[in-house]
Structure prediction request, 375 residues.
Amino acid sequence: MRTTGQDDPEAVLRIAGRFRIGDRATAAVELRAGHINDSYVVSTVNGNRFLLQRINGYVFPNPARVMANIVRITRHLERKLGAGSGRRRLTLVPAANGEMWFETTAQDRRADWWRMYELIENTTTVLRASTPEQVFLVAQAFGRFETQFVDLPPPPLHETIPGFHDTPNRIETLDRALSAAAASPAGNHRRRRAIAEIRSIAAHRELAGRLSAGTAHQLPRRIVHNDCKISNILFDRATGEALCVVDLDTTMPGLAAHDFGDMVRSMSHRAEEDARDTTGARVDPELFAALAQGYLDGASSLTEAERRSLVDGALVLTLEQAVRFLTDHLDGDVYFRVERPDQNLDRCRVQLALLESLLARDTDLRGIVGGPTTT
Ligand code: GN1
Ligand code: MG
Prediction:
């Protein structure tokens, strides 16, 4: 099981010292945000603060590609946003050797890639949607983020995780996890607790192909964020403004519908991602409308075909995320970090409850997004 808090604080401080932080690092506090990388807030003698992250080598077997993308993304945003934009974009801190990352080796106990960002002070993050106004701002910020990359000079960004949104393939991976689970007592125990979810996904599996083949060929591949959840926006503590888009690991070529879908799965309802009680995991038309308006406002270069694909993106992504959480539950929680047993199963349940409610309101949602339907 992947858990947090495994690093020796002294070792983290030593790694922090390999970056150009100007003075001495005195404290490193783990930040329990995100399911993938390990993050630490590092403070220095003079009170400067940084975010130090270990890139998860299981999830990102090619961290050089992740970092090459992030260097290009952050430089592009710096050029576009101009002077005085330091709080609106992430800034990498170079390592002492001039690279934008630092690699530990087996001699340092384990081989890992680390990177550091300047910490953007006086910001907050939220884990679940509360008001339409807030959802509008988040969706607008992610929409603008996509627009900012329309003129990224070639070559295309690397695909940091190949087949990331190949939903039919995600379902095949789930099928393999089910067979593997059936072969061991522990696996069977996990499988038995998920019978209802396994059935529900089987009933909806034809949705997985909605954005493949036929539809997808009319849809441009553009730079998308690929993890557009509400917790990946920093809000200004004083003004409440959606200040900065964070978590750039999966920013790469993809479909706008996938970003829209990620937003719907994370903020068109009021449930936490891992709520044990799924009653809040129902689409709220008011939040959905605010989300669609914010996104369409920010993503100003969207084509008509892309706009028509958005509701399908919501269905596909919500199903895909349920499939990914269930697969990890069956695999024994090796991908998404968990803090308690069955957390990935609860995450799956929230997505499935939301999916049912999206399907029940399909026509309304298409009306809200506008334009004729794709199906
Ligand atoms: C993961 O890194 P983090 O926790 O923001 C995952 C996303 C999922 C998300 C679910 C590389 O994101 O794809 O949508 O969890 N990232 C990766 O909350 O798999
Ligand atoms: Mg992420």
Observations:
- The first strand starts at residue 25 and ends at 31.
- Strands lie at 25-31, 38-44, 49-55, 102-104, 112-118, 123-124, 222-224, 233-236, 242-245, 252-254.
- The radius of gyration is 21 Å.
- The chain has two domains: 9-121, 132-369.
